[in-house]
Amino acid sequence: MLSLEFAPRISDHLELKLLPMSDLEAKGRVGDSGNLKGSEVDPSFVEDAHGIKTVRGGGAGRGWNGIKYKQGISGKNAGTQSLSMNVATIAPGGVAFAHIHDGFEVILYILQGRLRHLYGEGLQQSIDNEAGDFIYIQPGVPHEVFNLSDTEEVVAVVSRSAADEWDKIIPYNKNGA
Which of 117, 153, 174, 176 is most deeply buried (CB count within 10 A of its CB)? Predict the structure, then answer.
C-alpha cells in the first residue's frame, strides 16, 4: 500500500494583489488585435508576481510576415534570456513568406487547421501538417508556410530558443537571386 504525503498548498503562502486593469489591457483581454506592429510589444500586459510572469489572454495582437500573433512572452516584455513563445494565426489561404531562422530553433504545436511547409534549398521539399502535430525547425532551414484552407485559420503555439523573437529572421529568396 502506498502512502502519499502532500506539501502545504502554495495558496496558503501567497498574498495576491488585484490591480485595476488599464484600458489597453481590457481591450487585449477581449480579443482585440491591438495596433502593435512587427516586433513591438506592450509590457503593460505582463503581470509580475516576483519570479513568475503572466500575460493574460496572450496580450495585444500584432502582425509580421503575413501572420497575426498574440504578444506572448519574450525578452522584450518579460525579460526572458533565451526563450520566447506566442500564438500565431495564419488567415485562410494565407502565407508566411519564405525566411530563415538565424541561429535559433523553433517548435510549433498546431492547435487548429492544416498547413504546408515548403522548405530546403530553393524550397523544393514539402511537408503537410495539421492540428495535433508538433513541428521542429532547425536553425538555418529556409521555409515558407501556406494555410491549406480557404475557410479555416491555422492557429499554432510557437516556441523559440531566442528571447528576441523576430530579430534574427532573415527573408529568403526562393529564386536564388
Answer: 117
Helix (H, G, I), strand (E, B) or coil at 31: coil
- The reply to whether 12 falls in a domain is no
Q: Cα separation of 104 and 123, whole Å?
A: 19
- In this prediction the pTM is 0.74
Place of cell 485559420: 153
- The verdict on residue 34 lying in a domain is no
Q: State which of 12-26, 54-68, 110-124, 154-168 shows the largest mean pLDDT.
A: 110-124
pLDDT tens-digit map of 72-119: 899 988 899 999 999 999 999 999 999 999 999 999 999 999 999 999
Q: Would residue 113 count as lying in a domain?
A: yes
State how far the Cα of 51 lies from the Cα of 17, in Å rounded to an integer.
Answer: 15
pLDDT at residue 14, rounded to an integer: 37
* CB of 144 closer than 8 Å to CB of 96: yes
Question: Dihedral (C-alpha) 108, 98, 95, 34: value to the nearest 10 degrees?
Answer: 70
Residues 99 and 145 sit within 8 Å (Cβ to Cβ): no
Q: How far is CA 139 from CA 18, 77, 103, 142, 161, in A?
A: 41, 24, 5, 9, 10
